[in-house]
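Fig. S4 source data, part A: sequence.
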Amino acid sequence: MAKYMVAPKASTIIKGEQVVRLSTTKETYIETIDTLTKRRGYAAVTDIAKELGVRPSTVSSMLQNLDAIEFVKYTPYRNALLTRKGKSLASFLEQSQKYLKSMFKLLGVNEDVAQEDAYAIEHIIHVSTLEKLSRFVEFLQNTSQGAILRECFKNHEQLKESPPKVPLHERKMPQ
């Protein structure tokens, strides 16, 4: 069970780009820097601290750590900038959250809960699981078979009971 409590640390290739996974805390810093940079054009230590609810000295220490492993370019008393590795990870996390949230919404989870759950799970989901999930979400959203499955699930949810079990060899897929 413990192996699911932290993100896999291995690197993987996503769309031709190597993405290295970090601890949940480090990934949260990467996301926060990315968000602040998109929102304000920069990510200052005080802004990161305020966003995360930690002391500026804690942020400085983490930024030095992220700089040492080349995810962030940080000069004390200046803004933090994501490196190429940092940007790749931030993009991967953003996509992870998007696919997870889409999946939860397809299941009928409300927007706020879907967002909260996606944010929590994106840090612990294995890359290969996320790749399968993203393809499944695309299948559900973009194919006629996916539309049928969504409709069947919606009907199932409305019934609040399980449909009768039909042996696999007797099942007929709608055309």
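Fig. S4 source data, part B ends here. Strands lie at 11-14, 17-20, 72-74, 80-82.
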